[in-house]
Specification:
This protein is of the alpha+beta class and 191 residues long. The protein has three helices and eight strands; from the N terminus they run E-H-E-E-E-E-H-E-E-E-H.
Length: 191
């Protein structure tokens, strides 16, 4: 099963600016503990963990911010995603999520549509970052008038990539938790 929801077969008229949003790809949120979050979404709600990304620097800016970004699949093929920041304290009262962690990712059907959407958004005066190649999707980032972080994204992965990621998701998550626990042991004041 792919980490990208299937393309819509319904034909819908694109918006006036030509941003053909097909549907939800994922909602992404900050979390304080990825294992606690994994247990809730996978073991209790039944959404399988299908993809885990370990990143040292933000792909959109290059700023150092070690994190794990992990995805749970819902029955319609869209995802709930979370960011677990390596250097964040455990106590949620002590840390506010980074502005980029909470966002809504909407799906378009191709890199050509993504580039057209970027050009149209910029022509409308919207500041856009990207495109950013994440190895399984390519994305652009911008804000709505309310300050909501938005991502337009399109699938670039192969079925083989999706299969390998699904098979490796739990091992990748375990490696993340080991790394985070080691960091906490070296930095007890921060934890």
């Amino acid at each position: 099963m792919s980490l990208n929801p299937p393309s819509s077969t319904a034909t819908s008229a694109p918006s006036r600016l030509g941003v053909p949003v097909q549907g939800l790809h994922h909602f992404a949120y900050f979390c304080r503990d990825s294992e606690e979050t994994r247990h809730f979404y996978e073991d209790i709600l039944g959404c399988p963990l299908v993809h885990v990304i370990r990143v040292e620097n933000l792909p959109s800016s290059g700023v150092r911010c070690p994190y794990s970004h992990f995805f749970f699949e819902m029955m319609d093929g869209s995802f709930l995603a979370f960011f677990d920041l390596l250097e964040a304290p455990d106590d949620p009262a002590l840390v506010a999520p980074q502005r980029w962690t909470n966002h809504l990712a909407l799906r378009v059907n191709s890199t050509a549509e993504l580039r057209t959407a970027k050009a149209n958004l910029e022509a409308a005066g919207v500041a856009v970052k990207g495109p950013v190649d994440h190895a399984f999707v390519e994305s652009i980032y911008f804000m709505d008038p309310n300050g909501v972080n938005l991502e337009l994204t399109t699938a670039t992965e192969t079925e083989e990539f999706a299969r390998r990621e699904r098979e490796a998701a739990h091992a990748n998550h375990a490696n993340w938790m080991r790394e985070k626990n080691e960091w906490r042991a070296r930095n007890p004041v921060a934890a």
